[in-house]
Amino acid sequence: FSNKKEILLKVMLVFICVFVIIIIIIQILWNAKTSPKTEIYHSGESNIIKKIIDGCSIIHESYVPIHIWGKSGHLQSIFFSAIGRFGKTPKYESHRYKLGGDDGSLVSYDLFTTKVHKNSVTIVVVPGICNHSENKYIKVFAQHMNQHGYKVAVLNHTGALKNVPLTRPRIFTYGYTDDLDLVVSDLIVKNPGEKLIGIGFSLGANVLMKYLGEKPERQLNFLFAASLCQGYNLPECITVMSEWDNLRRLYYFGLTRNMLKVISYHKDKFESHSIKNNIPLDWKRISSAKALHELDHHFTAKVYGDISDMAAFYRSNSSSTYMKNIFIPTLVLNAKDDPLIPESLFKYPRSLCDTNPNVVFVVTPYGGHLGFFEGGYIIPNRLSWLDRMLLEFTNVALDVVIKNDVLEPKEVVFEC
């Protein structure tokens, strides 16, 4: 009798466990199919922005992430960081151009081309930190835009490509814009009369927005721009990334290790430069840095030689200092569950919308840091919601801007 009782209890326990698991799965699937609406902020004073928003249906819909794990900003961000995009890397045609900078540095960009170039525009992409044209998410996005008739030029952050040597002891920084300016100038020379569209991912968005705002006349070469998942203000970014809240300090450590990996590609160059110029570099401290500001103290400030005030350096490299000077139509996007960029930093684009009628700020409830995976339950589609949204936004904005003419800089009072 006791054996039967034990068996019955085990069966009941298994039944209860299965029942609980089924309830959890049902709850996950039910919640996965319901998502809060995307939030859209703009002043309402620009007819061009109104027309772009009205025509871009995807930003009015709720972004529905991949069902099982898509509502975790951490998983979205980790998968993006690890693999970029799911599925096979698409076939593409590209050519790498190498340019010489005024300081003797070697700057490169890749041009992803299409046989059906239906638009007389080129999309200029500025990737995220330590990223370049060979990252999978960049290839997927470029090929997606190629399929719809757009050429895509991708800036390779100086030093990020292991197979492109440094000719000067310098790698990219948070807001250094000379490399981007060199690429833009080359595109203009090679394609006279063509206009550009600027798209920046994460740190690349900071570089792009700073580039457009610090010298507003540069915007005359652009029809519009998009800033994706950036943090806007470097001093505040460093403060929040140093906190353990939402595990940001762990991500900060990961970003630092990525930077150290880039530095290691060119260690011989930096060592010879430091010896030649009597610059004391403590490689033990450099290699053991656990935060970017530590790395900047032991490496960046010494190698560049002209950085005596790191606080001023961070401020001058922040796009928030220059965004007020942007007059072309601009999309700014962040996700609420981005573990790297907390909502406290959203005050910068919200404030920008209050003073600049040509900016629209879109906030999604989910997506993590540049993830935005969608489709299916476990394995998402190769194309993300972000890829689809950028194509629709580009198509609509291009049509609206061409029909209504781009705003001229004389309509805006610039501040330095």
Automatic annotation (TrEMBL):
Residues 122-375 form the AB hydrolase-1 domain. The keyword Cell inner membrane does not apply. One of its GO terms (cellular component) is sperm flagellum. The chain crosses the membrane at residues 7-30. This is Abhydrolase domain-containing protein 2. The keyword Hydrolase applies. GO terms for molecular function: acetylesterase activity; monoacylglycerol lipase activity. The gene is ABHD2. One of its GO terms (biological process) is acylglycerol catabolic process. Signal peptide: none annotated. Pfam families: Abhydrolase_1. Keywords: Hydrolase, Membrane, Transmembrane, Transmembrane helix. The active site is at S202, D338, H369. InterPro entries: AB_hydrolase_1 (IPR000073), AB_hydrolase_4_sf (IPR050960), AB_hydrolase_fold (IPR029058), ABHD4 (IPR012020). Belongs to the AB hydrolase superfamily. AB hydrolase 4 family.
